[in-house]
Amino acid sequence: MKRFFVTGANGFLGTNLCHDLLDKGYHVTGLVRDKNSFKGNLHKNLSLIEGQLFDDFAMLFKRMDVVIHVAATTDQSLLDYVTYWKINCNATKQIFNTAILSNVKRFIFVSTANTMGYGTLQELGTEQNNVNTLFKQSYYARSKLEAENYLLTKKHKIDTIIVNPTFMLGAFDSKPSSGRIILMGWKKHLVFYPPGGKNFVHVKDVTSGIINAIDKGISGEKYLLANKNMSYREFFKLLNTITNQNPIMIQIPKQLLLSLGYLGDLLRTLQLKSNLSLINTKILCIENYFSNNKSIEHLNMTYQPIEKAISDAIDYFSNSKKQL
Length: 324
Description:
InterPro entries: Epimerase_deHydtase, NAD(P)-bd_dom_sf, NAD(P)-dependent_oxidoreduct. By secondary structure, this protein is of the alpha/beta class.
């Protein structure tokens, strides 16, 4: 029976991944900072250990078959690249090299679709596309890409698979993280949306892609885990249909968004944290679209309707409020 080590086990993706690995009969050791923060289901084959990414896992890894590195910092308010690099790149290097020294069979790194070049509906972004100039300026995407490039230089030492999810939705988004986009439009009388669009995917499809990559993934390859390309207007209209609501929809003018981005950059120069930045507001104005053809062909993936991802997220948020 395979044994897995999962970092970020108490996060949105990590929780769902632990559930699905356990459902398949695997033993899972999940790294968390605080066991009490784990919102998932406990299981006889699940061991939670408290620790930090820079801890020494050498002895533990000797008992593992696969290490799946999910943990990352995605906070958009951080002020400098070094802070992202420390967690998203340097910690990844340490965990990866420990896995090599401990003779782990396979290392799976969860990156982001934004280390690849996005496309339009007419020409979708693929694994062959180099990162666009816009995302080269994103500290988060840049730190993930630097980690990817490092891992690929040592793929001959350990089977190394990189998965690149797009924007995930679903249950167990307890912070919430990406699910905030649903809360922006759910039960609102006015919905303001940016002019661009992005690719959405069910978090369960991402966990399926990771699990399929364990046996089907080719070492040294990257796999986009992507599903539905939609404008933000289309997304919120779909949310309205699912929730049976009819708010007033107002598109935020591009120039207003860019002005807010300049304001965010000004705050950052004053060392004031802000989720606003010119890079982030520019990203909201583009068609950030991707293809999932490679994952379907190589990983035998099938994707659920994005309506299911939205419904699962809403059900989770509803039940979470009832429990409070």
